[in-house]
């Protein structure tokens, strides 16, 4: 559930959203040729389906609804805005009602929640299905990658006691330079010169550190 939708309208908007998603999904399944330019086609089908219902939502609410439907059909649902945010380095779903992010080195809880555990499972299945992987009670953990290379780890009951969990470690599109590390305080100029000298001398270098430490 997106917190930006007024709570008094959440149930009606959710029903409308699911109805539009079902309409568009059936249209795509019945006409595989529509998948050629999927984003453009989905956008057109969404507008046509919405117009056919002859309803009129406020512009901001309609635009938000359209974004969520596009994310659901083309991306990873309510997690997609978090994945699109370049400042977020990690997304952690610790059950349906607890979604955390790592942003600028700090762990923050978001206001985003899933409807239930089944909704989290649908995201997990959407991630692993194209990869030919499976997850079930007999094989309750899976490691995978998103199309952009981000690492994904998913765990479901009985191993996950609070419901299915997802951890997505994103990769920065631009690699950090030595100058960046010095500016961030991760290295001193002296340490940087020492490492540069080791590389130039082709010495063996051992790099170690905990998960997410930036190895």
Condensed summary:
The chain has about 220 residues and is of the alpha+beta class.
Task: Tell me about this structure.
It is a single chain. The protein has three domains: 7-74; 81-169, Beta-Lactamase, CATH 3.30.450.370; 175-215, no CATH class. The protein is an alpha+beta fold. Helix content is 41%, strand content 14%. The chain is elongated. α1 crosses α2 (38-52), α1 (10-30) packs across α3 (59-74) and α2 (38-52) crosses α3. β4 and β5 (151-155) form a beta hairpin.
Topology:
Elements: H1 10-30, H2 38-52, H3 59-74, H4 80-84, E1 88-94, E2 99-103, E3 106-109, H5 117-128, E4 141-145, E5 151-155, E6 165-169, H6 178-184, H7 189-200
Antiparallel strand pairs: 1-2, 1-6, 2-3, 4-5, 5-6
Helix pairs in contact: 1-2, 1-3, 2-3
Bulk shape: elongated
Terminal residue distance: 35 Å
Mean of the pLDDT scores? 84
Structural class: alpha+beta
Features:
alpha+beta; Beta-Lactamase; 3 domains; 6-stranded antiparallel beta sheet; elongated
């Amino acid at each position: 559930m997106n917190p930006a939708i007024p709570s008094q309208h959440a149930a009606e908007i959710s029903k409308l959203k699911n109805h539009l998603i079902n309409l568009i999904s059936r249209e795509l399944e019945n006409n595989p040729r529509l998948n050629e330019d999927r984003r453009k086609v989905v956008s057109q089908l969404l507008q046509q389906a919405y117009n056919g219902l002859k309803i009129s939502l406020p512009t901001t609410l309609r635009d938000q609804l359209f974004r969520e439907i596009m994310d659901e059909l083309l991306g990873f649902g309510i997690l997609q805005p978090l994945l699109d945010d370049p400042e977020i380095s990690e997304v952690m779903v610790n059950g349906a009602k607890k979604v955390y992010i790592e942003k600028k080195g700090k762990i923050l809880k978001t206001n985003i929640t899933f409807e239930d555990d089944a909704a989290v499972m649908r995201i997990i299945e959407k991630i692993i299905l194209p990869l030919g992987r499976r997850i079930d009670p007999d094989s309750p953990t899976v490691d995978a990658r998103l199309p952009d290379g981000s690492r994904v780890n998913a765990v479901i009951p009985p191993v996950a006691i609070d419901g299915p969990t997802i951890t997505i470690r994103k990769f920065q599109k631009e690699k950090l330079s030595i100058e960046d590390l010095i500016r961030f305080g991760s290295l001193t100029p002296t340490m940087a010169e020492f490492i540069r000298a080791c590389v130039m001398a082709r010495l063996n270098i051992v790099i170690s550190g905990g998960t997410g430490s930036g190895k």
